[in-house]
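Friendly challenge for the regulars: who can give me the structure tokens for this chain first? No prize, just bragging rights.
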Amino acid sequence: MPKRSTLTLITLGLGAALAYRFRRRLIGWPLKLPPAQYDVGIQRDARIPTADGVALMADHYYPKARGSFTTNLIRAHSGKGRGAGAG
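First reply, four minutes later:
Bragging rights claimed.
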């Protein structure tokens, strides 16, 4: 029995490693998304000043490539982060 459970753990581990390695393709395939063209950088907690003096916090995702790119702004009323707006 121990050999069988070891083999099962090895098989599960390899399956998990392959799923992690190809995670972007596995997620994009059912959604019919094209493969990524650029690596992505993340600037966490970027401060955005507003006219009334309040600073909004945001995460800025950008392509790690030269050139001009469009910007997508996504807003949420509940705030940024886990548990934001709760209470």
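The chain has one domain: 2-63. The beta strands are 40-49, 55-63. Your move, everyone else.
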